[in-house]
Sequence to fold (270 residues):
Amino acid sequence: MLTDSHCHLASHRFTADEVPAIIERAEAAGVTRLVTLATCLDDVEENLTIASHPSVHACIGIHPCDVHQAPDDAALRLARHLTDPRVCGIGETGLDYFHPAPEGWEPERFRERQRKFLHQHFELAAAARLNLVIHTRDREGDASFTDALAIYQTYHQSVRAVFHCFIGSWENAKRVLDLGGLVSFGGVATFKTAHQVRDTLKKCPAGTFMIETDAPYLSPEPCRGKRNEPALMRHTAERIAEQRGQSLADLAHETQLTTATFFRLLQNSD
Fold:
């Protein structure tokens, strides 16, 4: 049984009416637990509604590309949901230096607001005794990763973080693992040109990584270019298991336990 540790079931690319069928297709493919993540205040309630399904859990947060639209008290508004049993983590948050600053924002001012929100998300996670899901992306280099890791350094004794959709080097992955964090691999691991990702995932010890779809984005081969959904994670899991030289069953067991531990779902981890 596989766990999709990161998907966006409230995305506008999925209609509310089709979500039950998406969950059914995932279960038929052996993906029996899903973690859906909010990216703005407007989709928190929808993600929580979807997480009323017994196989779905939700994280709440503000994506770095949405911080300019979020009110200054966004963290306080998220805090109202921290005792909801459907909430299993904080995120998706992080730093995105890939996309240009929105109209009316200087690039550094926009990045500073992202960093401020990342601090606030860590504080929320610490207060709720939950863990955090981090997005980083750069047009070139790894400045967003380096800045996010520096912020994580401040909080790593009270909060664990996963750097999702990780495509970086083993050296950078080890910097995360050394702080007690995790990395997560998605459909990019199946791409023919993703040599660095494959090198990294081969070196990660069991228990230090999760697998995900990031649906509706980043469909794995052989579905690349199509809308992604949790059922397609089986392609990614099979490829990662092959690359690591282990059975799909062993990979599924290891990553399910890792995900259940990280998101505090151990009572339902069998």
Summary: Residues 2-268 form a domain with the TIM Barrel fold (CATH 3.20.20.140). The CA atoms of residues 55 and 115 lie 33 Å apart. The mean pLDDT is 97.
